[in-house]
């Protein structure tokens, strides 16, 4: 008699924030997805902007030679 409950149209998708590792909701209710907050989103973007990831992806060299001042 009861309809099958296999399909849940409004099931929230939980993901791990790539910045702080906290569990957060990946959906329309979270404008900062896949991050948990604007702070985490900005933090990760800052790392990209400072080319930390770029250097790491280049072979793991230490960013000690290129210090723009
Ligand atoms: Zn976070």
UniProtKB/TrEMBL annotation:
Keywords, alphabetical: Metal-binding, Zinc
Sequence positions that bind Zn(2+): 17, 20, 36, 40
Metal-binding recorded as keyword: yes
A Pfam family annotated for this UniProt entry: YacG
InterPro entries referenced in this protein's UniProt entry, alphabetically: DNA_gyrase_inhibitor_YacG, Znf_NHR/GATA
UniProt remark on cofactor binding: Binds 1 zinc ion.
Domain of life of the native organism: Bacteria
UniProt keyword annotation of Zinc present: yes
Reported cofactor(s): Zn(2+)
Family: Belongs to the DNA gyrase inhibitor YacG family.
Assembly description: Interacts with GyrB.
Protein role: Inhibits all the catalytic activities of DNA gyrase by preventing its interaction with DNA. Acts by binding directly to the C-terminal domain of GyrB, which probably disrupts DNA binding by the gyrase.
The protein, known as: DNA gyrase inhibitor YacG
Organism: Ideonella oryzae
